[in-house]
Structures are given as structure tokens and as C-alpha cells.
Task: structure prediction
Amino acid sequence: MPTFRAVPIFVFILLVCILTPVGDRAHAASPDWRTRLNEELPLLGHRNWIAVVDSAYPLQTSAGVETIETNASQLDVVRTVLDQLSKAKHVRPVLFTDAELKVVPETDAAGVTAYREALSSLLGKTEVQSLPHEEIISKLDEAGKTFHVLVLKTNMTIPYTSVFISLECGYWSADAEKRLREKMTGR
Result:
């Protein structure tokens, strides 16, 4: 009798494993976000994006957009990503922040002033472009249709604090590309 009960339990476990979507199992077993960043960085190139986002950032559905929950602080993730990018020779970061961040009042979002100061200190003299949030989301959505976008979701609970990083070629400048195109057209 005990062997008869063991067979249905085994069959049940086998069916659960078979019927569970592969994506769900892969997501549950995904490695630490730092490991994932280090694995993906050599594969990323110009036109790819890395976004370090707050906890309310939406899960995008474009095929090329991959979201990883870091369960880490926003500034720690930004620091780690920029540190890894500084070691990469094949890409260089172009940073964007939400234009809204400059005017979010402390009375509506406690801690935003300290965050702005800490982010400014972290970024130092790095040039940062500021665009409306919806415009940046549209850029990521469009990029995700053809290129990979890595979204690292943090535990930040202040709005408009995301840092978006467009990757450009690390060994070829926009000026060099312009000269090449002019030469090709005979100008």
C-alpha cells in the first residue's frame, strides 16, 4: 500500500516540474544581480541600455527588456554599474535622469533632497542629460524592440530617481562616425 501512494506523489511532482513554465524556473534561479551584470556586460554594446530604477518602475513588456530585482539601494547599484562600465573598453556610458527629479519637493517625497545631493556627489563631473520621464521610457521601449535593455530594479521608494545609461561604442566617437559618413558621401 505505501508504494501505491508514493507513485501518485512522484507523478504529481513530475507533472508540476513539467508544467511549470521554463521562464518562471529560470527567473527563480537567476543569479545575484552583480553576477548577472558581469555576465551581460561583455555582450552589451552601443544601442544597449542599462537602467537603475526605483521600486515602482513598471515591468516593461518589450521583448528585449530584461528586469532584475536587486533588493539593493539605488546608489549602491548605480555605483556598481558605473564602476563596471569604467573597466569596460568596448562601451562608454551616456547618463540620463528624469527631468522631474530636479523639482520633486521634499514635502511630497521625503529624502529626495538627500538623494539628489548623494547622486550628484556620486556622479561628480560626469555629464548627465535630463529628459522627461515618459520620453526616457519611450526610448527604452523603442530600444527594447531591437536591442537588449537591462533594468536593475532597486528598493528606492522616491519617485523620479532612476538613472538610465545608454551605451555607446567605447573606441569610436560620434565625431569619428560623422567624419566617416562625410567621407563616404564625398563631402
Notes: Residues 10-30 have pLDDT under 50 and may be disordered. The two ends are 88 Å apart (CA to CA).
